[in-house]
Amino acid sequence: MKISYNWLKEYLDIQVSPKDLAEKIERSSVEVDSVTQPSDGLKKLVVGKIESLRDHPDSDHLKICSVDVGEEELSEIVCGAPNVEAGHKVIVALPGSRIGGNVKIKRSKMRGVTSNGMICALDEIGFGKDVIPKEWSDGIYFLPDDAKIGEPVFSYLGMDDHLIDVDVTPNRGDMLSVYGVARDLGAIYAQKPKLNHPSVEEVSSLAADKVKLDVNADLAPIYKMRIVENVKIQPSPLWLQIKLWNAGVRPINNVVDVTNYILLKYGQPLHAFDFNKVSGNTIYARQAYEGEKLTTLDEEERELDAKDIVIADSDKAIALAGVMGGLNSEIDDRTTTVAIESAVFMPTMIRKTAQRHNLHTSASQHFERGVDRGGVDEAVDAAAQMMHELADGDILKGIVTGSSYDVKDEVVQVTLSRVNHVLGTHLKSDQVSAIFKQLGFGVTLDGDTYTVTVPSTRWDIHIAADLLEEVARIYGYDNLPATLPTGPTTLGKLTEKQILIRDSRRLFEALGLNQAISYALTTEEKAGQFMMRKSAETQLSWPMTNDHTTLRMNLISGLLDDVAYNNARYVKDVALYEQGRVFYKDSADEVRPSEHEHIAGAISGQLVVDPLQNAKRNAVNFYQLKGIVEQYLQNLAIEGDIEFVATDRYPEMHPGRTADISIHGHNVGFIGQVHPSVAEAYKINETYVFELNLDALLEMPKKMNQYQPISKYPAITRDVALLVDKNVTNAQILAQINKKGGAYLKSVHLFDVYQGKNLPNGKQSLAYTLTYQNPNATLTDEEVTKAFDKVQNSLVSELGAEIR
């Protein structure tokens, strides 16, 4: 919220600069995003008066204006605004000036006529289109008649003010108003803000005779209304418009502007109805009917939910309570009778309504964070009195009450010893008492115990800890002594799970993959893809967008989104991994899902890009990704044999290029190519993926010592080529070789696979290199040959292999 520095000075004696004041707010209360002055970057913008104008000789819409800018001679300025007229004072950008967007204005010719500057509209000097009053949105702006010719325009438009943009936390809703900030600064600077309170000038007619209220107190614990008759709708005075547009609010008219002004000043949302558009004389606060429709002030027709709160007349809904009014009861130029609503609605219901309709307004922001329940009457009184003064309205006697209750001050106790113990200070009793009084709290001291009475303006304070925070921030966080914690300490270290996760990241990065971090929320469809186990979905009750409705049950879908993002930007070679949690529920009735650590990878294109080689030939394949996974599992030193077993149980994977991964008979993941139809749906190129259950890998036994001394004795290799049936797998052959290879067999490497001509039907040729090495002595040919013969005989007898 943007708070005006000049507005604050109306209530406080501020002797510090805007930036110093903002720093004090940030150090003591809430975060400050920025301190800006609307005139920043602008120069040589002065008040000018159009003395006369004539048509441009070479244009049907341009005018040549003779403008008095306070110099000896009138300046001729060409202007094309449709509302340009003689006799008005306007904003003039002189030659050499800077206007909005850092645009420099020069003396130039426009269709042959020299223009000595520019007559400006509000948006041309930096005003946002969304705050410019509609009457000035399509033309130049007319300054007030008392503006002095030749003077800078900034003071006449409020552009010499400083705006402090505070970022209010949910617990400090009181800071969403000028009064709230003034009270807080009063406490910080030990001043009592000079806040004004309305004195209402009423007529004798009773408001209760004009309107009746029928309110569900469970929806609106406080609901009150005033009636103002005979109002005259017109533009608001300039001082009010300036306050509004500096706060980022567009001025509309003198009735609507009053409600927005009161919101900024008091923090109490109000709504003004055109009472002549209300059917009957009773206004209801109720829940919406299922399927009921309402066109809100933004001209959007909305289908209401039964959980929405609406304000209604006898026939229809006329407002979405606490969020936005209805178009069917808006204030317009024909309005004569205004009903002013001032209420407190249930915060959770307002928040959910705003989320449901994606309609977040200033009113809903205030109601969600809470409002001063003791200030409802004062806010509606102030609004009614302003409409009397600015719109010549007659205020009917009395506030009509639909629901209300006695708002009592909160009473909280805290001891001086507790204050000093928690804050590490040595404050005296009178110092703490003074702080509570500066905050506007009532306080009594009985021995060591303070009894603090907290007014309704600070509805965030309920317990002793809240008072401790108030003492700390008003005393000054910078003044609190720095102390070290006392008591026994333990040496911190990573858990086994944390070590595994960090090692996993390092390993995959060493293997050529880059880390990706995807959203844990995705669509319902993507959440259910690539499932390693059966699970019910976990849906969000109030998703922010349609793309983030469901907790993920796999990591691959997020990686494929990342691949698609890169492919769409002509990045064809993508190698990513992600470590994160997936969420499973055994049944839809479970309230909370269980969380499981997974790690997954996706590679598309080339893993190692070689510009001298054919890209298609070097594209990643199943075996390259399989090698990466095998190396990863080997580096984790997990005990047990790793098996890759062909499977077709994943509908999103290519049925002929997918395998389950198991270790010692326990399934830990899968690997393979994404099904072409799925790849097409994601708009990605051919992609290979894997996903592993990190929790399962963590629970498996590990080899405690992986290190062995390098043998100083030479190795001996033997090659063998086998002719086997096509249904014989590489895993079967490796298992048989390792079983019969003997103690000195160090490694087995498949170096050739052939199927095709010159081989019998149903046969394939596989060639292996076997490496033998004795770490303690030099092997002889006889020893190697003996062991090698056992391997060949075993392959022939067990697998029906033919040695080639």
UniProtKB/TrEMBL annotation:
The FDX-ACB domain, residue ranges: 711-804
CDD domains the UniProt entry points to: PheRS_beta_core (cd00769), tRNA_bind_bactPheRS (cd02796)
Domain B5: 407-482
Amino-acid positions noted as binding Mg(2+) in the UniProt annotation, renumbered to this chain: D460, D466, E469, E470
Assigned keywords, A-Z: Aminoacyl-tRNA synthetase, ATP-binding, Cytoplasm, Ligase, Magnesium, Metal-binding, Nucleotide-binding, Protein biosynthesis, RNA-binding, tRNA-binding
Gene3D superfamilies: 3.30.56.10, Bira Bifunctional Protein, Domain 2, Ferrodoxin-fold anticodon-binding domain, Nucleic acid-binding proteins, Phenylalanyl-trna Synthetase, Chain B, domain 3
GO cellular component annotations of the record: phenylalanine-tRNA ligase complex
Superkingdom of source: Bacteria
Gene Ontology biological process: phenylalanyl-tRNA aminoacylation
Named cofactor requirement(s): Mg(2+)
InterPro entries tied to this protein: aa-tRNA-synth_II/BPL/LPL, B3/B4_tRNA-bd, DNA-bd_dom_put_sf, Fdx_antiC-bd, Fdx_antiC-bd_sf, NA-bd_OB-fold, Phe-tRNA-ligase_IIc_bsu, Phe-tRNA-ligase_IIc_bsu_bact
Binding partners and assembly: Tetramer of two alpha and two beta subunits.
The protein, known as: Phenylalanine--tRNA ligase beta subunit
UniProt organism field: Secundilactobacillus folii
Lineage of the species this protein comes from: Bacteria, Bacillati, Bacillota, Bacilli, Lactobacillales
